[in-house]
Every structure is written in structure tokens, then in C-alpha cells.
């Protein structure tokens, strides 16, 4: 959800694991089946030049509060973590902008990673030797890079050999701008926008022979696998693994009414799932969802995304030889 604070500048009342084969004796992580806004001044006070007074506003990324997203990419890779911050004002009104975010394991200064804001950059990813396998907070002055409306922030690998490995999340843009009030959050969604879900048995699969589709009562879901022991449990009779444990599951939504949607993902978590996280790509934007715990059937939140028309949400299990899982994918309207 986007958060907004509104402070007039100068006001003294500022508000301010290794992939496992799992399954007990089997593989793929499958256990055996059991038999505000504070002190807001909304007056139209202006400076001598006719512009409203400067205000400090804090705008959060659409997935703020969700899990940190991992990056593991070699030098020169075009792999990116992509985040979106909506509702920024006309850049002509913005005096300065500071990007802040949480990080994890960003421990190689001047090498760890690169950051782009609306294509401008790259900026060095803030890193600290003390952040080895620890949390940190990064801050970058990105004044002059913002655009009106939706802003895109990308994180990629740096010069670190053999690869950059870190996690990022909880992005905020703190701007000082000539605005009468900080931007409002998204309004209510179109009443024609409704919650929709697609189940695993309705999805389309590439390399279907590497996917087990279970249909036993209480255990209805799909997962990528390579063990022959799962052949009897594939209710489609199409599982015939080639040993790569790779493929994709494509969840298609046609004629989506334009709106901002929360993307919900239900899957079966087990301790031997993909340690890099299952890669879910929503309308071209990928994020990792960790499933390697003992929570069993779990609903995870991918985040929010503006969607319209024909939309594909893809579980991409082609990146690692590890097991990913899915039961259903749901889109729920949350704003316009």
C-alpha cells in the first residue's frame, strides 16, 4: 500500500538452504501424503513566486511491507529487481528526492550492485562491510530523476565477482515539493473490477512432463519435480520427468478490468522447496516468493500491480533445478 506523509518544510511539528530432494525418502520437498496523514495543512498558501510552499512527502512502493526480494546475478547480467512508487507530482514541482530502502547482505561497498530510477543512473547500491548476512538501510539522493505518476526503480548486479547476492524491499521516495498537499493514494477500484482466481489445473504448462499435478482430496496442487516416485500421484498421467525439474505454469486472466490489483499466491510450503524462492512473473515483472519452510499450504502476497486486458501470471521454474509449488493465483482489486 502507498503511504503518504505531509509536512510543510520548516514546520516545527514534523511528522515524521541448499536445494534438497525432500519428501522424506523422495524428492522435491513433498512429504508423504498422510492416509495517515498527521497535522496536515491543506490551505493554499503560496510563495511569492505563486507556487505552493514546500512540503515533504513520503511515498511508498506498491509492495511496501512485503518480503524482501532476492537478487543473485553475475557481473553484466540484465537480471533486475523492479519496484514501483506511484502518485508522484510533476517533476517541475519537486526540489529534491531521496530513495530509501531495506537491504540484506549488502556487504561489498562500491561493488555490490547498481540502482536505476526511471532509467537514470546507475547509482552504486549502498553497502557496508558490517552488513554481511545482516540487515541494512540504504539511502540515495535521486533528485532530478522522478517523473509524474508511476516511478520505476530497478536494482541489478554490480562489479562483484563471481556474482552479486543481496535482497531489497520496503522502498520509499521522500520528496520535497511545491504541493498544496501530499499526493493522495489510489482511489477505489472500478466497480466492474472483481476478484478472480485461476487454479493449477486450469493453468497451461511448458514441460508438463516435469510437473506433478496432485488431485487427492486436501492435496490439490502442482509442483515441479524429477523423481519417479511421484508418477502414481500425478492425476493427469502426464508426469514423465527428464531430470531437469524445469518448466513454467502459466495462469491466464482475460479481459481484466483496468485497476490496481493485489496478487495472491497459494502454494504448498515445504522445507526443501527452491531456496532461491519461487519466481512468479506478473505481467512481465518477476518477484521471488520463498516456499522453503514448514508452513504447508500458505497464501503469499506478491504485491500490488496495475493490470488491464489479457494478463499472464507465470510461475517460472526454469531458473534453477529446484522444486516450486502452486495451488492457485488470485487477483483482488484494491485501487484505481
From TrEMBL:
Biased composition (Polar residues): 1-16
Positions with biased composition (Acidic residues): 20-43
Residue ranges of the region described as Disordered: 1-53
Protein known as: Uncharacterized protein
Native species: Enhygromyxa salina
